[in-house]
Amino acid sequence: MRLFSLVLILLHGGGGIRYSKIPVDVYYEEPMWLWPEEDFNLKADCALAAYQNNRIAFVMAWDEVLALNHCYSIVTVSGFESKSGSVDVYLLDLREKNGQCDDQLDVRELISGNCNLNPEMCKQLESLENHCKEKANNPTCTVVCPEGEKYLLGTINCCHPQREFINEQGDGECCPENTLPMKHDNGTEACYPEGTVISESKAISCPEGTTFQKEKDGKDLCCKNEFVYMEAFSACFSADGQSYTKE
């Protein structure tokens, strides 16, 4: 058992604030802000700046060319994802002293302690704690997608590939159950019930097992598959002309 890497900041009055290195990356919805590199070559410097700016996490990245550490402040942390890079992520640690363990670090324990910090920081930690409980209740607090699903582009939400589309902002979105993304003439996509067809930039929804035929009196006319609508009879006929279904 070894002590997990942490940074302790001593505050006026004898108190202390800890940031511990976590074995996962953080997912953030707002850009990280880089502090001046020449001022932050030590983790303690970065941690102190993070605390003074009410940030619950920071990232240290080693620059081999300049031979120094870059300090990144994370404005808003919304979740965690499997570690993919060589950067070190430090998260505010609310555990008691005797709870600072080692390689078996449980991210949930870091953020579930009693918070007596700036309300802005406590609010973020509470939001993360709820995220872990509701969507990722495991030691690394990472979302595990069900079989057949994957992470949406740029998010930590899961979606079946057939229901995924890219919105106008370039972000991944997932259509609700029983709907699929469909592309309009202008290239944009939106979610429609399964069986919907796009005709003349208008969304037409036909029941499953039927096909859109035409619009009449403001209504969409649908026939069973392999049937054709005949105006003269106001009905859908099969190819042999014998069977039909009324509107």
Please describe the structure with a list of short key phrases separated by commas or semicolons.
single chain; 247 residues; mainly beta; 3-stranded antiparallel β-sheet; 3 helices; 13% helix; signal
In short:
By secondary structure, the chain is mainly beta. It has helices spanning 43-52, 107-111, 119-135, and strands at 6-10, 16-22, 24-28, 33-34, 57-63, 68-73, 77-82, 88-93, 150-151, 158-159, 164-166, 172-174, 179-183, 189-193, 196-199, 202-205, 210-216, 219-224, 227-230, 235-238, 244-246.
Task: Explain what this protein looks like in three dimensions.
- The chain has 247 residues and is mostly beta strands.
- The chain folds into three domains: 6-135, no CATH class; 145-205, no CATH class; 211-247, no CATH class.
- It has three helices and 21 strands.
- The strands form eight sheets. Strands 1-2-8-5-6-4 form a six-stranded antiparallel beta sheet.
- A hairpin with a 2-residue loop joins strand 17 (210-216) and strand 18.
- The protein is elongated and about 85 Å long.
- The mean pLDDT is 78.
- Residues 1-16 form the signal peptide.
- Keywords: Signal.
Number of helices, counting only DSSP H or I runs of 4 residues or more: 3
Helix content: 10-25%
- For the termini, the CA-CA separation is 74 Å
Structural class: mainly beta
The sequence of SSEs as H and E is EEEEHEEEEHHEEEEEEEEEEEEE
- Which regions contain 5 or more consecutive residues with pLDDT less than 50? none
Strands, total number:
21
Assembly context of the chains: single chain
Signal peptide: 1-16
Keywords: Signal
